[in-house]
Amino acid sequence: MNSDDRYRRALDTAHRHALRWLETLPDRPIAPAMDIDAMLERLDPVLPENGTDPATVIDALATQAEPGLMAMGSPRYYGFVIGGTYPSALAADWLVAAWDQNTGSRQPTPATAAFEETAARWLVDLLRLPEGSGVGFATGATSANLACLVTARDAVLRAVGHDPVAGLGAAPRVRFFAGDAVHTSVALAGRIAGLGVPATVGADREGRIDLADLERALSQSAGPAVVALQAGDVHSGAFDAFGPAIDIAHAAGAWVHVDGAFGLWARAVPRLNALTDGIERADSWATDAHKTLNVPYDCGLAVVKDESAMVSSLGVHAEYLPQAAAVSDPLSRVAELSRRARGVPVWAALRELGRTGVTELVDRLGSSAAALAEGFASIPGLTVLNEVVFTQVCVAAADDRSTAALGEWLRAEGTVWASSSRWQGRTVVRFSVSNHGTGPDAVARTIDAVRRGASAVGAADGEVR
Ligand SMILES: *Cc1c(COP(=O)(O)O)cnc(C)c1O
Predict the structure, then answer these.
(1) What angle, 0 to 180 degrees and rounded to 10, lies between the N-to-C axes of helices 54-65 and 3-24?
(2) Do 210 and 61 belong to one domain?
(3) Domain range holding 198?
(4) Which of 349, 375, 398 is the last residue of a domain?
(5) Which of 44, 64, 79, 410 is deepest in the core (most CB within 10 A)?
(6) Is the pLDDT of residue 236 over 90?
(7) Gap between the Cα atoms of 187 and 209, Å rounded
(8) Mean predicted confidence (pLDDT) in 297-323
(9) How many domains does the chain have?
(10) Residue 129 maps to which CATH number?
């Protein structure tokens, strides 16, 4: 048996299983049939002494995994903020794995680097960010937030004469502010970057940063500062008032970073323009491609207006690394030296959709969320708690116990999957519309399931049956 046969048989096996998964995705029950403990019990805990034929390994993997797989790509999966995957993006991802190009430097991997650079330019244009911004392909918005905040920290320190290469020990304190509703990943990135968790500034009911409070917070102390704003609150979908917030922060000399993990994509839809007015005047932005753009995990984007600041913070120099002359290498825009060419599936998804297709995608996600909210609001006993401005819908029954029971009923019944959360002091069932396939049919089936669930748990009378 030559090695080509081994690839062919392993890949054919994977292909067959992948197609079966993808083709049954729209109709399978969404929650896994087995939990993690049951899954672990299925697997041999002891590393076998002898090897196994690759195709047999893949067949066993797919067969054993099946009952523990969540149908996250279903058009009726609304948990967390999770996209599905477009066919071209998935197929491109397979090629990326087959090519196995370590896309840290441009010179050794011209093909994948060129596709990534092209995708980055397309994105900056599509999201209407400043031309010439530096773009790093990170694993997700968390690592993109980190890349941007490290850049921000260094830039504000350099501006007061401290060389960040000397470390934070002798550096002036960098003040770090964010609204109350800041995403936990920004706080995590702040901690890793040595900024600590952000000092929280007030926010309104929907989670939008309080402008007067931001101004007050910035004026109460002096020194270098970083302000993190948010495009898309995970509960309400709300957007900060970017124009005024950025003016206030810049007037105080602060660097403005925007966490736009899913909300930045609103930029692609003309009717949603008002939500992100002024956002292009920030200094850096983090977003995900694996959420709204529906490429496979994992792919986030770190965008910094001043690319040279990004390269100063994240670039490395070593004699053995080939360095392209005038243009920065991919490894100088994220905190990774070796990585897969995760920007290539982004190129493929953008090429599959075109500008119009991206606009239609994001528009459809927003319209489907609005339609869900309208449907939920018509169900006796249910209330939609947020202003549905984008893709997020939080619904609650008369009391927390019934709301929790509704979430459990839905997840067990299997037509839809939505996560439970706490928001505004109440238990909620949270629907995040992020899958490219979520349209009128999914919306109708979802409203029907929620109606049955609300009735089953007695949502209208506040009594858990
Ligand atoms: C998902 C999300 C993040 C974190 O992104 P990952 O891709 O999971 O790392 C950050 N901020 C917001 C608003 C998010 O929705």
Answers:
(1) 20
(2) no
(3) 91-349
(4) 349
(5) 410
(6) yes
(7) 15
(8) 89
(9) 2
(10) 3.40.640.10
The tokens of 380 are what? 């006796």
Q: Is residue 462 part of a domain?
A: no
Tell me if 174 is assigned to some domain: yes
Residues near ligand 1 (Cβ within 6 A): 81, 140-142, 183, 185, 232, 234, 259, 261-262, 288, 300
Residue 436 lies inside a defined structural domain of this protein: no
What are 383-392's pLDDT values in tens digits? 999 999 999 9
> Are residue 267 and residue 176 in the same domain, yes or no?
yes
Spatial distance between the Cα atoms of 395 and 192, rounded to a whole number of angstroms: 34
Ligand 1 center to residue 140 CA distance, Å?
7
Strands (E), 149-296: 175-179, 199-201, 225-230, 255-259, 284-288
| Residue 176: strand pairing partners | 226
CB 397 within 8 A of CB 403: yes
> Which among 318, 283, 263, 266 has a CA at the least distance from the CA of 105?
318
Q: Quick check: is 388 in a domain?
A: no
* Closest of 347, 339, 283, 279 to residue 121, by C-alpha: 347
CA–centroid distance, residue 303 to ligand 1 (Å): 15
Residues 6+ apart with CB under 8 A from 110: none
Whole-angstrom CA distances from 69 to 37, 256, 298 are: 13, 39, 17
Q: Which pair of structure tokens corresponds to residue 366?
A: 């927003």
Tens of pLDDT, residue by residue over 96-134, are 999 999 999 999 999 999 999 999 999 999 999 999 999
pTM: 0.96
Tokens of 15: 């292909």
Residues 205 and 248 grouped into a single domain: yes
Task: Tell me, yes or no, whether 38 and 126 share the same domain.
Answer: no
> Domain check: are 154 and 293 in the same one?
yes
- pLDDT-based confidence at residue 354 (cuts at 50, 70, 90): very high
CA of 183 to the centre of ligand 1 (A): 7
Which atom of ligand 1 lies closest to the CA of 145? 10
Q: What is the pLDDT of residue 319?
A: 72
Rounded to the nearest angstrom, the distance between the alpha carbon of 261 and the centre of ligand 1 is 5
Same domain? 162 vs 298:
yes
Same domain, 46 and 171: no
Q: Look at residue 465 in the predicted model and tell me its pLDDT.
A: 45
Residue 321 reports pLDDT greater than 80: no
Phi, psi at residue 136, to the nearest 5°?
-110, 135
- Pick from 49, 50, 64: nearest CA to 17: 64
Mutate which of 72, 78, 80, 81 to test ligand 1's pocket (most atoms within 8 Å of Cβ)? 81
CA atoms within 13 A on the CB side of 396: 15
Domain C-terminal end among 349, 364, 382: 349
Q: What six digits make up the tokens of 141? A: 């918005």
